[in-house]
Write a structure and sequence with these properties.
The complex is a heterodimer of chains A (561) and B (314). With 561 residues, chain A is α+β, with helices and mostly antiparallel strands. Chain A has helices at 5-10, 47-50, 76-86, 93-110, 128-135, 137-141, 146-150, 152-155, 194-210, 326-340, 344-352, 370-373, 421-425, 437-441, 464-468, 482-494, 552-559, and strands at 65-72, 120-126, 185-191, 214-222, 244-245, 279-280, 291-292, 300-301, 315-324, 446-447, 450-452, 472-479, 519-523, 530-534, 539-549. In chain A, the strands form five sheets. In chain A, strands 9, 10, 11, 12 and 15 form a five-stranded antiparallel β-sheet that branches. Chain A has a four-stranded antiparallel β-sheet with strand order 2-3-1-4. In chain A, strands 5-6 form a two-stranded parallel ribbon. In chain A, strand 7 and strand 8 (300-301) form a beta hairpin. In chain B, a hairpin with a 2-residue loop joins strand 4 (98-104) and strand 5 (107-114). Classes of the chains: A alpha+beta (561), B alpha+beta (314).
Chain lengths: 561, 314
């Protein structure tokens, strides 16, 4: 087995998903077997409502090609005309969900990963200033989410970004979103086809120019090629763990937004949609919907009302353009591996909590396992504090069952360290500095990021020119509170050495706000923890913004009227 | 031979002279809170290390947010200002962290945070009332009179004015006591038939209680012997000033003064801007927002209790 991390990435096997085939799932109806008796009723998102929710919130675009356009308004009047032009092009939850279901249905029926369906989608979001200009200051001020009103630049230092104005990550040096170049409108264009994407981007920017809008910045995002598909630039599979949103597409039995696979008889069936995917009430992501109860893993709580009425079923958007310094990461991994006497790939994987393929250390502590990584019913099925029981699954035709090694209790973080990225930002069953695991559900976000730039991971003898190119992640997430979700995860957990559990900073996204900004991780070894100092930073924020993705009706009726 | 011969004072404080009977008295008090053995689930147990020997396999520090979760998350999840305003009431400061704010002309000038327990001060006062009076005068005000602390010459009054309306020395919130914290830890070893934390009922709305219950219960289910690490006590683990800015926007300096305990295990800390800086605490902005209450600082303080897990012998 190769242990040199660079060599591992060079030879990375493409993750093969479990080859399910011959399964027919209805794109319009539900699966009665997914119902749980006595479960709290979940809201039905009928066609009219689905038509009003932007599709990148739910279920998410998840396209290989995405383009982010950051605009500043010129004339509000002209911008309103542009918005009315744009609105029919905005892709709703209904459209995206129908596509996702058709795609999934065809994929399962044919047993192929890419059944050839294509689509190009558009979504839009507005800053506090944009809403003030388009709908009036009183409407913008009616958003009670203070972080949104303040904007990313003002919250930057609190998020641990550099306070030294000479540092590349200081807000004054951002390509967008700094005090002098804050974007007011974010347009997200996503497509299966790069030409289709470019065509739609051209049309939108031309129309925007006519509406006297200034394109402050744009960023093309693209899924990494070949065996790195779905991976981020450090080489790890990304986006495996997403919350399962509660709610129904129709009142037909079992017609849930998030498909349910856990058998009703399983003791945790009320918590998970599929093994490891925790269910969360939609109000955590859509304003004005029933939210997660603060004390319960399963119960709902009343909807919030601290926003203008027209904003119901919209969502806050956090965008952060993150540069990734791949050589710095690899150098740290090599040095740490030498210090610890461990294989590089193990050290790198312990920083993340998963092997490069995405297989969780908790299930396969000794070596990567691409087959496990490709098994969507197993690759996220693990707890940290206790042995993980087999999950009772409903019959899934074509799926032979989860025969991978079960995760064993790892209370002390010997296998998946407390600092590991996936353990930091999703503690699962573990108590945290805010108590019970149910509190963790209040922190979950819908991640919709995509890499940008050419990969360096896995490239043999990269040229200097390639090394010097910018690469990173357009981090994008949705939630109903920026402060209680994205900022909480960043500030309270990723950036802390002691929260949610002692062990060091999150070595992937965590920052130490105080100079000299050096981070630490207490690396578990049989002889006890070894403190490693992470003197260099390999993720640097270079821009972004806080936005609000309104319901589509409000774009015409309020912001564009 | 037992693992420890004498429970030390919180933070290894030496408020009484060496050789004082107070130290034995404190040991007996703590020992009295811990049963020799409390059997737990999965073969685990909580035990008194002054009665049994022990091989520690790991220590575990349990941390939680200093500001009451019940106010911030449960009661006022959509009204942070209200949560912070309510949090100034010490009877609601239930996360084993209490604070008192001093304001001048409506602006916060000083906040004092404590994790000291009434248990300790009652025991100290029973042996050394003069020392208690001296400490009050040092920590709160030279104006403290003996009769204020020992009304009518009687026993120490933990709810005296210098620890309530006029100052702060130790906890006054009803359930903030060492006996409650030890009882919580000790009582958490039995998790019934639970096989993981999702099987445990949600419990309290605080951060501290579920944190301790779940972490202790988890370790117990692994068949481990558990106890609190010396010196037994509740501590401020630290504070996070990331993004705290002076009025000119630059990062704040170090305005913390640890009065009791040590960095990383603090019992009393004061936050006040030195007069030479030309501004006060209320002028500092956290993430762009001015400090109006002590709770806005307490949110960034972390409280802890330390435990040890291993195997008991004898």
């Amino acid at each position: 087995m190769k242990t040199d991390f660079v060599a591992v990435l060079q030879d990375l096997a493409e993750v093969r998903e479990v080859p399910l085939k011959g399964i027919k799932i209805s794109s319009t109806g539900g699966e009665p077997g997914a119902e749980m008796a006595d479960a709290e009723a979940e809201p039905v998102y009928g066609p009219r409502v689905r038509d009003d929710i932007q599709g990148n919130i739910i279920p998410g675009f998840n396209k290989d090609h995405q383009h982010f356009l950051f605009f500043k308004l010129g004339s509000a009047k002209a911008a309103r005309v542009w918005l009315r032009w744009l609105t029919p092009r905005i892709s709703s939850m209904d459209e995206v969900l129908a596509f996702v279901r058709a795609h999934r249905s065809l994929r399962l029926k044919l047993g192929v990963r890419e059944p050839g369906l294509k689509a190009t989608w558009v979504n839009v979001a507005f800053s506090y200033e944009a809403i003030a200009k388009l709908a009036g200051r009183d409407q913008a001020d009616a958003f009670d989410e203070r972080s949104f009103r303040q904007g990313l630049a003002e919250r930057s230092a609190h998020l641990g970004d550099p306070e030294d104005p000479n540092a590349p990550g200081h807000r004054a040096n951002w390509v967008v979103g700094g005090p002098e170049n804050e974007a007011e409108i974010l347009v997200i264009v996503a497509s299966d086809d790069s030409d289709d994407l470019a065509e739609m981007v051209d049309v939108i920017t031309q129309e925007a120019t006519q509406a006297r809008m200034e394109l402050v910045f744009e960023q093309l995002g693209r899924t990494l090629p070949g065996s790195l598909r779905g991976h981020e630039h450090f080489g790890f599979k990304d986006g495996i763990s997403q919350p399962g949103i509660r709610g129904r597409v129709s009142s037909a039995p079992g017609d849930f937004i998030t498909p349910r696979y856990v058998n009703a008889a399983d003791p945790h069936a009320g918590i998970f949609a599929k093994p490891g995917q925790m269910l969360v009430w939609p109000g955590q992501f859509l304003l004005g919907e029933r939210r997660q109860n603060t004390e319960s893993m399963t119960a709902s709580a009343p909807a919030a009302s601290n926003f203008p009425k027209w904003a119901r079923r919209g969502s806050y958007v956090v965008c952060r353009r993150l540069l990734q310094d791949v050589p710095a990461f690899l150098q740290f991994v090599a040095d740490a591996a030498a210090t610890l006497g461990l294989p590089e790939v193990r050290v790198a994987s312990m920083l993340v909590g998963r092997w490069p393929s995405g297989a969780p250390l908790m299930r396969v502590p000794d070596a990567d396992d691409p087959v496990l990584a490709g098994d969507e019913f197993a690759n996220n099925h693990f707890l940290f504090d206790d042995d993980t029981r087999p999950s009772g699954l409903r019959p899934i035709p074509g799926y032979a069952g989860d025969s991978h090694p079960a995760a064993r209790a790892d209370v002390l973080g010997a296998v998946c360290p407390h600092f590991a990225h996936i353990r930091k930002v999703n503690p699962r069953d573990v108590a945290t500095d805010l108590g019970k695991p149910a509190d963790g559900l209040l922190r979950m976000i819908l991640r919709r990021g995509i890499p940008f730039g050419s990969p360096l991971a896995g490239v043999k003898k990269p040229s200097r020119k390639l090394v010097a190119q910018e690469r990173g992640l357009v981090f994008l997430c949705y939630g109903s509170s920026i402060e209680d979700q994205f900022e909480f995860l960043t500030r309270r957990w990723a950036n802390s050495t002691i929260q949610p559990n002692l062990g060091g900073h999150d070595p992937i996204i965590g920052q130490e706000g105080r100079e000299p900004r050096a981070r630490v991780v207490d690396f578990p070894t049989p002889a006890g923890p070894v403190r490693l100092h992470l003197k260099r930073e390999w993720v640097t924020v270079t821009g972004g913004g806080y936005f609000f993705a309104p319901p589509i009706s409000a774009i015409t009726d309020v912001l564009g009227s | 031979m037992p693992f420890i011969t004498r429970f030390d004072t919180p933070g290894s404080l030496r408020d009484a002279p060496e050789g004082s009977p107070f130290y034995g008295r404190w040991h007996r008090y703590v020992a009295g809170l811990i049963a020799r053995i409390t059997p737990g689930s999965g073969g685990g147990e909580f035990f008194d290390p002054s009665e049994s020997d022990f091989t520690a396999a790991a220590t575990r520090t349990l941390v939680w947010m200093g500001f009451p979760r019940d106010l911030m998350v449960t009661r006022h999840r959509d009204d942070r200002d209200r949560a912070f305003a309510d949090g100034e009431d010490r009877s609601l400061q239930e996360e084993y962290l209490e604070w008192r704010v001093t304001k001048k002309r409506g602006k916060v000038t000083k906040v004092v945070f404590v994790t000291e327990t009434p248990d300790y001060w009652i025991e100290l006062a029973a042996e050394h009332p003069d020392r208690v009076l001296q400490l009050y005068r040092e920590l709160v005000s030279p104006a403290v009179a003996r009769g204020d602390l020992f009304p009518s010459g009687g026993p120490y009054d933990p709810f005296n004015q210098w620890n309530t309306t006029k100052g702060i020395v130790h906890y006054v919130q009803r359930i903030n006591t060492l006996s409650a914290a030890v009882g919580l830890a000790q009582g958490s070893v039995n998790t019934g038939s639970a096989r993981d934390n999702f099987d445990i009922p949600p419990g309290d709305q605080t951060s501290a209680d579920p944190r301790v219950q779940l972490d202790i219960g988890t370790l117990s289910r692994k068949g481990l012997s558990l106890t609190l690490a010396e010196p037994v006590g509740l501590y401020i683990a630290g504070w996070d000033e990331t993004g705290w800015a002076k009025p000119d926007g630059s990062p704040v300096g170090n305005y913390w003064t640890i009065r009791r305990g040590a960095p990383g295990a603090t019992l009393r800390v004061e936050y006040a801007v030195p007069s030479g800086e030309g501004f006060v605490v209320g002028d500092i902005r956290i993430g762009g927002r001015p400090i109006r209450t002590g709770g806005e600082i307490a949110e960034h303080l972390t409280v802890m209790i330390r435990g040890a897990a291993g195997s008991r012998r004898g």
